[in-house]
Amino acid sequence: GSVDAERSNVTELVSKMDPYGKRTIFVLTKVDMAEANLHDSGRIKKILEGKLFPMKALGYFAVVTGKGNADDPIDLIQKYEEEFFQNSKLFRDGIFKANQTTTRNLSFAVSDCFWKMVKESVEQQTDTFKATKFTLETEWKNSFPKMREQDRDELFEKARGEILDEVVNLSLIPSQQWEDNLTKYLWEKMSNFIFDDVFLTAAQAESISDFNTTVDVKLQQWAEKELPRQCIDIGQFVLLDEFQNLIEREQKSRSNDPITNDIKLQVVQECRT
Questions:
Q1: Smallest Cα–Cα separation from 97: which of 58, 61, 134?
Q2: Sign of CA dihedral 240, 242, 246, 252
Q3: How far is C-alpha 213 from the chain's CA centre?
Q4: Low-confidence residues of the chain, pLDDT below 70?
Q5: Would you tell me how many other CB atoms lie within 10 Å of the CB of residue 154?
Q6: Residue 39: predicted pLDDT
Q7: Are 82 and 48 a contacting pair, CB within 8 Å?
Q8: Which residues contact 210 (CB under 8 A, 6 or more apart)?
Q9: Which intervals hold domain Dynamin-type G (predicted)?
């Protein structure tokens, strides 16, 4: 704008924050106005060569940001910028280098800078992970010299096999135990309905025959609509409850390997949701 960059402290702040210019790209805007009003073309040349300001940068670019109308569309601004540099005297005189002009080249430079920083960061993280992995593997070998290492896939298959074993063990549960649990949860689920909706409603009848009729109608409607769905829900609940009991019982045994405990319980929780 109207503030002379040489009298601004921005370059000084940038120099303090990034003294080696590894994260800085210098952008000279409104060069169309600078060309129209500037008598010393060497000043712009020094700016784009990084010789005028006390700072370092990865690159120096000259761009035109439009004619000053904030409502101009992007394509119109780009067209104006391209036409300016094509007809620019400074460009023809070699003050502007082709690779230092236009917003397009600037965007390429910013993209290259960004991905270079990402690559460096990823490489640093990779080195850190490799060092951590080596430390853990060495610690494992020294702590458990007689045990074989297993990767994530092998541990998953181990847990999967143990879960399937528990599924097989469900068939060993006595039928009486299944019946008792189903009866218990079925009554807990339906007792309120039996007393509140069936018995109390029928109790208002004036005769025994009316009472029996109301009870029969209520129970028939319930048996046709609600009972099948509730039986399925209760059956699933009892099945998962027994399955979880088997897992928890196995986890308490001395031969149990605790490394698969969490995934087993997570499987049960996922089945419940």
A1: 61
A2: positive
A3: 60
A4: 1-8, 39
A5: 11
A6: 62
A7: no
A8: 202
A9: 1-123
